[in-house]
Amino acid sequence: MGYGMAAHLVKSGFPVTGFDVYQPTLDRFTAENPNAYAAKNPREAVQDADFLIVMVATSAQATPLLFDETTGAVKGLEEGATVVICSTVAPAYIAQVQSLLQQCGRQDVRVIDSPVSGGAGRAGAGTLSIFASASDPVHLFHARAILQCMSDDRKLYEIPGGLGGGSNAKLIHQIFAGVHIAMASEAMGLAALAGWDTEEAFAKLSGGEGSSWMFENRVPPMLDPDHQKYSAVAIITKDVGIITSTARQHNYPLPLLSTAEQLYLTAISAGWNAEDDCVLVRLYLPSQPDLVATRAGQSAPSPPAVSLETIEAVMVAVHLAAMSEAMSFCACLGIDVRLMYDIVSNAAGSSAVFIKHFKPMEEGAWSLQGMADAGEKSKEAMDEVHALRYPLHLGSAALQVFMRERREMRE
């Protein structure tokens, strides 16, 4: 994504000097963008620059980029320069950056916490979703031209609450993304094992209440191995790990996301780090890992063992339980839930359940107690699927949440 962001800024008329640890990327940057420049290290890259945009995979990469004694950018920054951190990192890391700047005598440097979402394509088109926060609104005003250049006109969000607010908002969005990506694999693996033509199942489920942006985006590569891939397992695993770690710091339970995290970690342990995250479907079908693709366009020789209504019931229950934990955690972190609705409903974390049930669940303080019918359908679905001996990791976790809340209501 960093390459696309930098290239778009160049094409928009901004003078850009880039640095990357991978030399072929730098060579491509200058070859494809005649007005672009390449630097040998971060410190050289920030010479005479008013802004430094940090777009790396992890905070472990960001720290030496900024603070390395020999090549770190901070010691080379101009007086009053602005560091825009676009990487997805823990909110606590943003505070750590601010502290390290003070420790090395660079209190003059402004920091903007500005994680982004949208993938490499939208980065290159300048249509990212950006969640920007700062210790002073003036800092955001100062950087607005750059942030607007990189973002969709409707998706530059200025998050209140000071530094870390942007990372908190991205964190909540990624709860939805992390659960929905895994749910796409769980649903399609079940459809394939039940004997459905998986193309037909995808078409029908996409139009139903159990659908999500991630389901519609991640299933096509399962159906066609030659389809465009989107994002590596390692990326969503990193994001989910940040969220669950932050939740532990707040002693806040996230049962659906924690279940999804174990699936991602299992995929990592299988050596699938660099593969597209739709590869999770293999975990559900270990003896027939290509069954979703094999059954695409293949009519069932006999009635499917499980109906699409059953599969949809599981999807709806999972999305409701994920929404409950994500939005209650959102409130815990002090984020405006209506702002979060605008962010999620217009981004990759969106789902039919989120749009339909946001208002009633907000009125119920994000409890599932008003969603008893979905819980009952989920219970019936679990009984039906059990005969297939198919693992419903997320479906089972969601049902436990529904049953716990129902028991609490009775007590």
Provide a descriptive summary of the structure in words.
There is one protein chain. This protein is of the alpha/beta class and 411 residues long. 57% of the residues lie in helices and 8% in strands. The strands form two sheets. Strands 3, 4, 5, 6, 7 and 8 form a six-stranded mixed sheet that branches. It has a two-stranded parallel sheet with strand order 1-2. It is globular, with a radius of gyration of 22 Å.
Brief summary:
With 411 residues, the protein is α/β, with parallel strands linked by helices. 57% of the residues lie in helices and 8% in strands. Helix 2 links the parallel strand 1 and strand 2.
What's the arrangement of secondary structure elements?
Layout: H1 2-11, E1 17-18, H2 23-32, E2 37-38, H3 42-45, E3 51-54, H4 59-67, E4 82-85, H5 91-103, E5 110-113, E6 116-117, H6 119-125, E7 128-134, H7 137-150, E8 151-158, H8 165-194, H9 198-206, H10 213-223, H11 233-249, H12 255-269, H13 281-284, H14 291-294, H15 308-332, H16 337-345, H17 352-363, H18 372-386, H19 393-410
Parallel strand pairs: 1-2, 3-4, 4-5, 7-8
Antiparallel strand pairs: 5-7, 6-7
